[in-house]
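Let us practice reading a record.
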Amino acid sequence: MSEPKFEVQMLHDRVMIKTEKDGGERRSTGGIVIPATVEQANRLVWGEVCGVGHHVRVVKPGDRVLYHPGDQFEVEIQGENYLVMRERDLHAIASERPEHGTGLYL
């Protein structure tokens, strides 16, 4: 007999984010190659919102959000890594429905 499956539902003001895979090497705007081994302090990263709690007011599943990697808890579900954090710990949202945007696009 197979094991029952349980749907994960986020609580309160929590947001679940699927992390984007780091491509390793990256290039600066000037074309300089930065090796994957170089760590940058206070670097914010992008991820995709997969689930939100019922007290989350701004972000929706599917939004890309900017966050600090040190402000989260990590969880593994079915072999994939996800992050769980409070909505207030997010720094920016990139979505197709801008209301108060910066004029910058990804």
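A brief commentary: The two ends are 47 Å apart (CA to CA).
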